Fold these 4 entries.
Entry 1:
Amino acid sequence: LLTAISIERCLSVLSPIWCRSHRPKHLSGLISSLLWGLSLLLNTLGYVFCTIRPSDRTCRLLLITIGSLDFLFCTPLMLLFSITLFLRVKCSTQHLRTGRLFTVIMLTVLFFLIFAVPLGTMILLDFLGYRFLYSPEIGFVLSCVNSSLNPVIYFLVGSYKDKRIKLALRLAFQRAFED
């Protein structure tokens, strides 16, 4: 989904007129549905071949396929379009307004690259036979941090410049620490 969001956002900034006049109206919903369906299919296959009816060879092949699709196709595309969007917005002579959506996307992609990509790369290389000092506990913590950061990013970016939320949050922290 991050890859699809990065591509769509980049295209809407690079060619806004084309996106408004020629882009199919329900394209975002269709792509999101297809990606959710693909994710559901791959996870269901993973559950069947790796848990219910364990087949070491099939499970390994499926996990290598998922890892390759994720880190050799989706991540480079997401990175390419995110960097293109970032450079276009920041280096533009037109002083394009960077809104909250741009900030959310950039922070989400940045934290994904920091926490998820190295872990996924190590797991993929481990399945391919290269051995690292991979610890499932560290992987679990990195995955949790990556997943937990998104709501924090959305909250902080959404409440940026909103004084009422800052005051309410400050008051809540003061009350919590008074006890």
Entry 2:
Amino acid sequence: VFIAQSRASGSHRDLEDEELTRIFVMIPKTYTEEDLREKFKMYGDIEYCSIIKNKTTGESKGLGYVRYLKPSQAARAIEECDRSYRAILAEPKNKSSESFEHDYYSNTMRPELRGNTLPFYYFVDSRGMQPEFCSFEKAETRIQEPVSKRLSVVSRLPFIQEQLFALFDLVPGLEYCDVQRDPHTNSGYAVIQYSTAASAIYAKYKLHGFEYPPGNRLTVIFLEDGNDSSE
């Protein structure tokens, strides 16, 4: 997890307090706040834990917040906790919890029921943490070539397998990353494959033209994978 701060975004502490130290997680409905603290204390110093409950019945909704003292601790928790927790940075407190719960359920927990929406990711700008969405409708208007689950990535610099895998693994569904080397040139070439064409579309949309490392622009195109691209 990389966290950047704009100079125009106010004091560093204000930004930490509002957006970078609190994470939102999915938990078993049997968890108590003490259970939640026990599971996440290994990643850093916890300021508080809270479980979201049904206002009428008082039963847990299976969702909770964990607030750390440092942004690095929250980032570590998101990176290293079990994927079943579906941990993400929480929205600022000035956004209603009901609205955030709805976004979380819609985009993180039930992707198979939302065929028109791809997963969302957070970026920090001068307004703070902003979710970025990419819908299939928008993606389709940009793509004029046959799509597939497989991508070709070309760079003027050679790739490091682990680093390229980590970059493309930011998009869910990565199946493999095969870095190939040309002994006659110093350029980089790799084949990336995802479990679905939707993930490949999103990866191409986000990473074609991306500078990695800075100053080195990636070229990402679709490769034939043997499937009917019309699907």
Entry 3:
Amino acid sequence: GKENVDSRHNRGRGGETTRFHTVNVAQPVRFSIKCPTGWHHYEGTASCYRVYLNGENYWDAVQTCQRVNGSLATFTADQELRFILAQEWDLEEKTFVRKDQRRFWVGYQYVITNRNHSLEGHWEVAYKGSSEVFLPPDPIFGSAMSEKENVLCAQLQCFHFPTLRHHGLHSWYAENCYEKSSFLCKRSQTCVDIKDNIVDEGYYFTPKGNDPCLSCTCHNGEPEMCVAALCERPQGCQQYRKDPKECCKFTCLDP
């Protein structure tokens, strides 16, 4: 309902005063918040992405992503990769060797099949998932490679400068998996409630937005079957403020 309820006085039969309270008519709502705070949403894959700055080796990075119900990122199409490259990730420059370049672990591994005259091998998806995942082109081999390792791990290198970033310039590195690096996690979009908690499939919740009196069901990362409560204005209070996160909770501003 409206914060300031309009009261209109009309004369009914017999001279009685009839009060009409105007309320807002319910409107369809489109929710844009489908990722927890700190994650970037991409509609094309219905996924959320986050760069973790704490330098970890490849195997520790895998576990960190799994703890947030995700995995090291793989890509299904050029558009998804371009979305990643175009993001401003709010990163500290000290986590990178060069200020103009940034490297992240991603979910591919390079399997070496021949070390005779030159390194030969092929890319694989580190953790089997969608068959639609594309594989990177031939890599640049990292400086910390070991002659004993037959499996190297993928780093995606992008550039800090906005012009280079928006042109999609990038490189793929095959690096020693025990080197420490920032990494990129990917997870499915999710339901996020008004207090930034992640909501499981099938549960009721209040979506992030401007209406704390909305209750929806989480289905495939989307709020569905939403119902709203209308709040009565606080009695004996002319000026008041609604709590933005609690339904039907008001603060009276009268002297």
Entry 4:
Amino acid sequence: CETCSEEEAKYRCPRCMKYSCSLLCVKKHKLALSCNGVRDKTAFVSVNEFTDLNLLSDYRFLEDVGRTADAAARHATMHSPTTKRLLSCLRNKAQKCNIDLRTLPIGFTKRRENSTTFNSMEKKFYWHLKLVFPHCHAEYTLKGVPDDKTLADILKPYIDPVESDPVVCQRLKIYTVSPQSDVQILMKIENRKQNSVRYNELDASRSLLDNLKGKVIIEYPTLFVVLKTLKNDMVVLGQDANEPAESSDSESSSLSSMEEGEIRDSS
């Protein structure tokens, strides 16, 4: 058992492949690793390990995608002129702020999740925002985040030793005990090829709007909060000796690869 290291393992988690000996250890490993126990249908399987079961699983996965797309296509509300006008208005407002906001077709997960709005009276965006803490395998979704709020204030309820929620603070302990100077906020660059993933480093002292200017946003921003002293596989653009300071890859190729990943995710 990879949880208690005492008893003989009887179960294997379909999600993370961890071995457990009992229901108690299963629950403990789910809590510790934020694992939902559900098999990842889009996980990579090498050719050597690919079996008939994997083929059947992929076939059923594609069937599920087809049913989901068909159900979305039949949803009248999503095709209404009002919805289309609101999305067009949202993109136009973002463009005036020098933000390339792109919306996905109906049925995509991020399209359904997105709750971003623009307040015409205040002339302000209220963003749907996702925070990812890779070192703790934790994700949090925020709704209605005003665009004039600084990233430091957005992160306070999560990693500030004093102002953060006690439960969240305990889960993100590795962040709360680290100095603020060690915290790095990254955002994936969308206009790159899939085999050349890079990230932009954001300024925590500046507002969300200032940090999003000049960037491509697919539906809503996703911020990755990492610690500089801990190893991670995220390459920051301009900090790699072999990388130029600016990206020159075509946007069309990245958008197509992004859409391919979202189609699999939408199931």
